[in-house]
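fyi for ur records
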Amino acid sequence: METQERPIGYWLKHLDRLIDQAAERALADEHLTRRHWQIMNVVRRSPLGPAALADALRPFWGPGAITLDQVTSELAGRGWLTRDGAGQCALSPAGQAAHAAVQEKIYGIRARFLTGLTEDDYLHTVQMLQRMAANLERAAVA
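which gave:
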């Protein structure tokens, strides 16, 4: 099948698998997964409770994936994630340092998959995907 004949769904799933594989390889030395990174990246901005954290990460969690509790417990066990009395998760100072180190590896993945593209190409692609998603979301409630 010619590359141009493959639908957008194929390319979205294929790219996601490739990003997952690249992240798993890049994070293996730290015994982390893409899911660990996603939690660290989301809570580095501000503390989140379990429901807000689950909502923020829902698109990344599929059937059979490691659970949110497993990942947050592993990060807490390393001393990278703290939970307050209300269950809000935040990165500890050690978690902030770990995030910064891991972020370099994640930026390396992004740089590789953006090779040959401009920042405008990337932004335009993201905008088009957002528009497509919004179109389908509106259609689902109509």
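The domain at 3-141 is CATH 1.10.10.10 (Arc Repressor Mutant, subunit A). thats all i got for now
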